[in-house]
Amino acid sequence: MKNPRSFGALTEEVTKCRLCPRLVEWRERASADAPKRYAGQRYWARPVPGFGDPSASVLAVGLAPAADGGNRTGRIFTGDSSGDFLFASLHRTGYANQPTSENRGDGLRLEDAYVAAVNRCAPPRNRPTPEERDNCLPYLVRELELLKGVRVLVALGEFAWGGALRVISALGHPIPRPRPRFAHGAEVQLGLYVLLGSYHPSQRNTFTGVLTEEMLDGIFRRARSLTEG
Questions:
Q1: Is residue 173 a contact partner of residue 192, using CB atoms and an 8 Å limit?
Q2: pLDDT at position 33, please?
Q3: What is d(CA 183, CA 189) in angstroms, rounded to the nearest whole number?
Q4: Do residues 50 and 78 lie in contact, with contact meaning Cβ atoms separated by under 8 Å?
Q5: Is the per-residue pLDDT at 2 higher than 80?
Q6: What is the pLDDT of residues 120-160, one digit of tens each?
Q7: 14, exposed or middle or buried, with CB in 10 Å at 0-12, 13-18, 19+?
Q8: Are 201 and 71 in contact (CB under 8 A)?
């Protein structure tokens, strides 16, 4: 029997979760109605666990898996343009052994970094409800408890920023009032942790120049300076 406080036990629990009927229906519908470029591929179509180095000092937190990304491949930020942008940055800044993340068997390894999301199922229009967010947050709380070396959380987008604040609060670290506001480059010390804000590496941001390679690299370089300083 697995230790209930192990990564393996948490992964098993996450991947079996059916707490949110709307998200269960959506992730399975995406699998049954795949776009032509993925025709014939077998979708993961389950909640997506976190991925990376269990000894990490940096935790990057996204919103949720993409319907044809993580929901297809079974690995967070894998198989879509957001993941391409994110893992290329992690490679340039020394956290990943390769710049691409295509599938679970592609040889990608992270060193000193771990990647997770607030919600583990792909939501319609990338918009989980508050109830769906709250159903999923305990998984991120437990993940952070297991990641005992983490000292910096990088929130990829405003939704992830809000989720990270809730998780840090759940672990007993007071959140100041007024609540810290999200911005690219925002930085706040919260107990054991520093929370850094970054725009999400979505096509909407990367194709329009709202988020550039230099900007995202700068966030991860700042994370490294905080953990190595």
A1: yes
A2: 87
A3: 15
A4: no
A5: no
A6: 999 999 999 999 999 999 999 999 999 999 999 999 999 99
A7: buried
A8: no
Measured distance CA(140)–CA(116) in Å, rounded: 8
Tell how strand 58-62 and strand 152-156 pair up. Answer: parallel
Question: pLDDT per residue over 44-71, tens digit each?
Answer: 999 999 999 999 999 999 999 999 999 9
Peptide bond into 178 cis (omega under 30): yes
- What is the rounded (10 degree) CA torsion for 139, 142, 147, 152? 70
Distance of CA 16 to the CA centre of its chain: 18
**Both tokens assigned to 29:** 């519908």
Residue listed under structure tokens 């947050």: 137
Domain map (residue ranges) of the chain: 7-228
The CATH number fitting domain 7-228, selected from 3.40.470.10, 3.10.580.10, 3.30.450.20, 3.60.21.10: 3.40.470.10
